[in-house]
Structures are given as C-alpha cells and as structure tokens.
Design goal:
Blueprint lengths: L4 H8 L7 H7 L4 E5 L2 E4 L4 E3 L3 H4 L8 H13 L11 H13 L4 E7 L2 H18 L7 E5 L8 H6 L3 H4 L9 E4 L19 H13 L4 E6 L15 H12 L2 E5 L13 H5 L5 E4 L11 E6 H9 L15 H16 L2 H19 L5 E7 L2 E6 L11 H19 L1
Parallel strand pairs: 5-6, 5-7, 7-8, 8-9
Antiparallel strand pairs: 1-2, 2-3, 4-10, 9-10, 11-12
Helix pairs in contact: 4-13, 5-13, 9-10
Bound molecules: 4'-deoxy-4'-aminopyridoxal-5'-phosphate.
The site of 4'-deoxy-4'-aminopyridoxal-5'-phosphate has 15 residues, from helix 6.
Length: 409
C-alpha cells in the first residue's frame, strides 16, 4: 500500500513560500478538482477560488475546450524548441497578441512564466541599448514592495525586503522608487488631491542614478503587493513623459493585470498609456498550461531586425511551448466569445458595493482596487491607520482568518 496523499505531502512535497514545519505537523489542503469559480479538495469540500488560483484562472476551472486544445496539440506536436524554428501555435499566438496589444508592440518573445518574462525584458533592454550605442544603460527601476519574480535577476527588480534579504547582495543595478499608496502616502494622503509626487520620484531617481545609466522602468498597471495599489489619475501619463524625457524604456508588467483582470486585454489600456514592452504570463492560458512572454515594440526590436549579425542572446527549452501556445489560443477564443472583459466591467458596480460594505467593518481601514482585483486593508485602528505588529499579524492571519475562511470555503 502506498502512503496516503497526506503522508506523502508531509514527507516529500516542498511547497512554494510554504512553512515546511507546519505541513509536516498539520498536512496541507489537497485540491484535486476545479469547476468554474470553485475548487474541491480530496475530501470533497468546495471552496470559492477567490484568488483565481494565483490571479491566473481567468476563464474559470474545468473548461473542456482548453483541455481539448492541449490534447490535440500534444498529439500533433508535443514539443519543439523556438530556437531558430517556429511552431504554428507559437506563430499564431504571437500574431494574435500583437494584434491585441496597443500601438507598435508587435513582436513576442515567449517564456514559461512571469518572472522569466520580466528578466527577459531587462536583458533585452540591455542588449537593445548596447546595440544603439548606449551600452552604459543597464539599470532598472521598479517600485517599493512590487513583486516581479523570484529568480535572482527578477528578485533584484522585486521590492519586497523580506523575500530579498536572505539573498542579498542582489544586482546593484536594480533600484527602487516609491509606489502609489494613496491610503498611506507620506506626501499627500491627507491632502485633498494627489500631487503625483510618487511619479516625480521616478524623475528624481533617474537624475540621481545618472539618466545615461538607466535602461528601463518596470511597473504593474495596478501594483499587487501593498494591496491592489491603483495609480492616481495622471500617474502613467507623467511616468511616460519622464521616461521619454530621459530616453528610458517603460515596461508594463502585466503578469496579473492582463487578460481581463482589469476588464481589458491589457492593463495599460485601462489607464491609457503606451509601454515599450509588456510582460505577461498567468491569464494568457488561464493557467491551463505554463506560458509567459514579453511583447516588444517595433522600435526595440528594430536593431535586431536590421542587423543580420545580431541575436538576442537569451532563451530556454520550454519558452513558448507549443502546447501552452495552443491552449492560449483556445483561451483567447473563450475570452472573446464570452466577452470576459465586458463581464468584468459590467460587474464593477456590484463589486464596488460589496467592497464598500466591507469598509464598514471596524477592522477594515481601506478598500481599493478595480476590475476583479480588490483588497481590503486590515488595520488595528481605523482612525490612526495603525497597522498590526508582526505577532498580531501572525495571530490574525494564520491563527484566525485563514482557518475561518478555510472552514467557510
Ligand atoms: N510579475 C508579477 C506582477 C507577478 O504578479 C508575478 C507572479 N505573481 C510575477 C511577475 C512572477 O511570475 P511567475 O511566478 O510566473 O514567475
């Protein structure tokens, strides 16, 4: 008799960002099936998948059509690399993403996930600037607390101290600026309107670093970590203006915000800005297969198109896997046919009302977000916005809320 799943999990599985000791002691929930907005564990208990897996399953669980697309492609051609070769699904998906993306973002470099996409954008920017005679432009600017991935390159761009600290020193060419937290903004939270000082922080940083050394800025349309930080009105117009003024590329990290999360195919469409590159992953396949990538403007691609001897020196075995690309095409069919983006926008007023009712609870300091990307920030004191100590957070999140929410499904 093999050990039970529970015993095998306790003994052998190393969960991501998971405390092994807790798993060893208590086991872990084992999710075995999904249907629509719900998943089921091995005891048959049903849970509302509020986080959509990890902001990923945008068209919902259990779609036969997506499984079929994977099966058909697996049988026809299960694998071939994109190293000097194309495959029909990778080519068709690149063309389709180019058509959906704004402006002249017409060239797609595929990866297997989001962090790799972000790191690919950084490396591409470095090679681009070397190609146009500005090899000293190597720095990347991102925002405090932003999550952009965990490999050492992407982690350098990530701004969360707690997950960076064990691996420091990280790349010194990755620097941070302020994020856009209106609720806790030190310069204008108490002012009647936002002063866009958060955007001006970008200009200050570019000048301090030396504009000729800065290659790119990486930002999410709505920043996840810190809690669905929606940019103030005019923020991205100002950021774009600053990037143009100093010749810096703007990368929109849309690993979460694309493919309907904000009610548009791309988050930059919601806020009306034009990035030089878009990084994506997650919702491109709704998680039915692992895929990510970078959509690149013609301008950035041009030195590689025009010089017969130049190659972007980057790649991976599974980047742009044909099964992932076939699944993504089927996923986009579903999104368009069922008007997933329109559905998100139509439900926004309802979602706003639900969040507003949560805001009345004594423990909720702020509610924010847009589309299907919302947060309730819990505070110790609503008046002073005082937050919880580490021990209190531990007690509240792990001791109280997680078990209660888990129990409630
Ligand atoms: N960028 C953003 C904005 C993300 O949210 C994430 C993942 N949550 C990543 C990058 C990294 O993606 P992955 O986990 O696929 O490497």
């Amino acid at each position: 008799m093999p050990d039970s799943l529970d015993q095998q999990a306790r003994r052998h599985l190393w969960g991501h960002f998971t405390r092994l000791a807790g798993v060893q002691r208590d086991g872990m929930p084992v999710i075995e099936r999904g249907e629509g907005a719900y998943v089921y564990d091995t005891t048959g208990k049903r849970y509302l998948d509020g986080l959509s897996g990890l902001f990923t399953v945008n068209v919902g669980h259990g779609r036969r059509e997506l499984a079929d697309a994977a099966a058909v492609q697996t049988e026809r051609l299960s694998y071939f690399p994109l190293w000097s070769y194309g495959t029909p699904p990778a080519i068709e998906l690149a063309a389709r993403l180019a058509a959906l993306a704004p402006g002249d973002l017409n060239r797609v470099f595929f990866t297997t996930g989001g962090g790799e996409a972000v790191e690919s954008a950084w490396k591409l920017a470095m090679q681009y600037f070397a190609a146009i005679g500005q090899p000293q432009r190597r720095k990347v600017i991102s925002r405090d607390y932003a999550y952009h991935g965990t490999s050492l390159g992407a982690l350098s761009i990530t701004g969360i101290p707690a997950i960076r600290e064990p691996f420091e020193p990280l790349l010194p060419t990755a620097v941070k600026i302020r994020n856009t937290n209106r609720y806790r903004c030190t310069s204008c939270a108490h002012a009647p309107a936002c002063t866009l000082d958060c955007a001006d922080d970008l200009e200050r940083r570019i000048i301090a670093e030396g504009p000729e050394t800065v290659a790119l800025v990486v930002m999410e349309p709505v920043q996840n970590t810190g809690g669905a930080l929606v940019p103030p009105h005019g923020y991205f117009a100002r950021v774009r203006e600053i990037c143009d003024k100093y010749g810096v590329l703007l990368v929109s990290d849309e690993v979460i915000c694309a493919f309907g999360r904000l009610g548009h195919m791309f988050g930059c469409d919601r806020f009306g800005y034009r990035p030089d590159m878009i990084t994506f992953a997650k919702g491109v396949t709704s998680g039915y297969s692992a895929l990510g990538g970078v959509i690149v403007s013609d301008r950035i691609a041009s030195p590689f198109v025009e010089d017969a001897g130049r190659t972007y020196l980057h790649g991976s075995t599974f980047g742009g896997h044909p099964v992932g690309c076939a699944v993504a095409l089927a996923n986009l069919d579903v999104m368009e046919r069922e008007d997933i983006c329109g559905n998100v926008l139509r439900h926004e007023p309802l979602f706003d009302d639900v969040m507003a009712s949560l805001a009345e609870l004594p423990i909720v300091g702020d509610v924010r977000g847009c589309g299907y990307f919302r947060v309730a920030e819990l505070v110790r004191d609503k008046e002073t916005k005082e937050t919880f100590s580490d021990e209190e957070s531990e007690w509240l999140l792990r001791g109280v809320l997680s078990p209660v929410l888990h129990e409630a499904g």
